[in-house]
Amino acid sequence: MISVSEALDQLFALAAPLPVETVPLVRAAGRILAQPVTARRDQPPFPASAMDGYAVPDAAPGQRFTVIGESAAGARFEGSVGPGQAVRIFTGAPVPEGATRIVIQEDVTRDGETITLDDDLDDNPYIRPAGTDFRIGQTVEAPRLLTPQDVALLAAMNIAEVPVTRKPRVALISTGDELVMPGDTPGPDQIIASNTFGLHALLHDLGAEPRILPIARDTTESLIHGFSLVEDADLVVTIGGASVGDHDLVARVAGELGMERAFHKVAMRPGKPLMSGRLSDAMMVGLPGNPVSAMVCGHVFLAPVIRAMLGLGTAPTPRLKARLSAPLSANGPREHYMRAHLDGDGIRALDRQDSSLLSVLGKANALLVRPVGDAARQIGDTVDYLPL
């Protein structure tokens, strides 16, 4: 068996970054910025008032000024401010030439066109210099996941279209005579297909474009038909049939269709059988069919592969650390991803760890990672985990 890190290395060797496409700014949130973008203007583009008040050339308690005009956001005062003069100004408006500070309106008494400054003036000048936020040529570096805050920044930089990495197109194929789709009526020996729906949600949240193909039955003809539907997929994920049993046909059929296949037994639980290779222009990954195994492998293997395709580098899913709130017995010869619950008291493994129990996975908000041969652990010990 190979380690999880060795399996990831072999997957990364197959996962090439995808091309760049340009999208309107309004569709950029949640996408991966593929190339640096630079500001096309200063922000603010002029010295701007930070408050409502009066723009004056100088200020001292009791000083008087004649109001000669007004500067509002979008409608500047055309002219300059000289000695003894003031311009009524509003937040965001351009500061007139000659003004060195804004006296806030709370510190002013106005009588007609004359203002008198109060005795307890605020010392803050309340002027935002041009380019305080950013200047022309300032860069937003790539790659990065674009947040709503990033989109606001790009808009202020006058960026209307954004270069992003194309979303990975992922085809999901569940295999097995025992499966029916949710909403269908199962026969006495059948169960409901769940893996593709969980993986679809995971892949969508990672920034991919997953699609669920019809269930492939345990026949060569059905599998060939399933593979014929992958079309323009960048990644084909099969669930089930990746082992070596009499009904595990995926590897053989994929090989007959030209896939350069690598079959791995990975030293992990849940999981273990993992198939990878290339099928035409698509990368292919075969996951085990047990529901929890498929979802755990989605977090451990598919998530890093999607990030690699998006140009975010080749690295495992980052692990966090927490203190145990319940003891653990010693781990065996496989890296164990235990369904766990993390709260203010720490992290604890849930009682039942069978790889078929989706109800337990549903209660988990973390995967507690046990290294190979890890010794027994006590309350308060620090352990690694993956958030769910």
Element layout with pairings:
Elements: H1 4-12, E1 20-24, E2 32-33, E3 37-38, E4 48-49, E5 53-56, E6 64-71, E7 85-89, E8 101-104, E9 108-111, E10 114-117, E11 127-128, E12 139-140, E13 144-145, H2 148-156, E14 161-165, E15 169-174, E16 179-180, E17 191-192, H3 195-205, E18 209-212, H4 220-228, E19 235-239, H5 250-256, E20 260-265, E21 268-269, E22 273-279, E23 282-287, H6 291-309, E24 320-323, E25 335-343, E26 346-349, H7 358-363, E27 366-370, E28 382-387
Parallel strand pairs: 6-7, 15-18, 15-19, 16-17, 19-23, 21-25
Antiparallel strand pairs: 1-14, 2-13, 3-12, 4-11, 5-7, 5-8, 6-10, 9-10, 20-22, 22-23, 24-28, 25-26, 25-27, 27-28
Helix pairs in contact: 1-6, 3-6
Features:
388 residues; Molybdopterin biosynthesis moeA protein, domain 3; 6-stranded mixed β-sheet; elongated
Describe this structure in a few short sentences.
Helix content is 18%, strand content 31%. It has 388 residues and is of the alpha+beta class.
The CATH class label of the largest domain is: Alpha Beta
Percent helix:
10-25%
The percent range for strand residues is 25-35%
Backbone CA Rg: 31 Å
For CATH, the homologous superfamily of the largest domain is named as MoaB/Mog-like domain
Q: Output the structural class.
A: alpha+beta
- Domains counted in the coordinates: how many? 4
What shape does the CA trace take?
A: elongated
End-to-end C-alpha gap: 26 Å
- Stretches where pLDDT falls below 50 for ≥5 residues? none
Q: What is the subunit arrangement here?
A: single chain
Strand order of the largest sheet: 8-5-7-6-10-9
Largest sheet at a glance?
6 strands, mixed
Mean residue pLDDT: 94
